[in-house]
Amino acid sequence: MDKPAPLGGVLKEALKASNIDVDLELYGLWERWPEAVGPVIEKNARPAAIKGKLLLVNVSSAPWIQQLQYLKEELIQKLNQALGRNAVADIRFKIGPLE
């Protein structure tokens, strides 16, 4: 009897077959976000989407957007380090849900 195939492998093969250009490893960013940015930022900002090398981040308020603008380069560096490659080149912040 064959063992069930891991879902991650099945999804990668399905995406290759469909010619959809998706970097599944980049979505590990959601798991690494809390550790990369720390508890205070994690409480007030969450990744919302990735478009190429642009990360869109939802933030709780306008003052937090301003604060994170000052920290943007440091955040990019920490996120890329957590991912083990230069996957994020820019971050845009907007007020949005922190789900």
Quickly list its features:
99 residues; alpha+beta; elongated
Ordered list of secondary-structure elements with their pairings:
Blueprint: H1 7-18, H2 29-37, H3 39-44, E1 45-51, E2 54-59, H4 62-83, E3 90-95
Structure description:
This protein has 99 residues and is α+β, with helices and mostly antiparallel strands. Helix content is 49%, strand content 19%. It has a single domain (23-95), classed as GMP Synthetase, Chain A, domain 3. The chain has helices at residues 7-18, 29-37, 39-44, 62-83; strands at 45-51, 54-59, 90-95. Strands 1-2-3 form a 3-stranded mixed beta sheet. The radius of gyration is 16 Å and the shape is elongated. The relative contact order is 0.18. The mean pLDDT is 85.
Q: How far apart lie the N and C ends? A: 41 Å
Global structural class: alpha+beta
Low-confidence parts: none
Query: Mean pLDDT, as a whole number?
Result: 85
Q: Give the name of the CATH superfamily.
A: DnaA, N-terminal domain
* Domain module count: 1
- Tell me the fraction of residues in β-strands, as a range: 15-25%
CATH fold topology: GMP Synthetase, Chain A, domain 3
Task: Label the CATH architecture.
Answer: 2-Layer Sandwich
- The topology string of helices and strands comes to HHHEEHE
Count of strand segments: 3
Main β sheet profile: 3 strands, mixed
**Shape estimate:** elongated
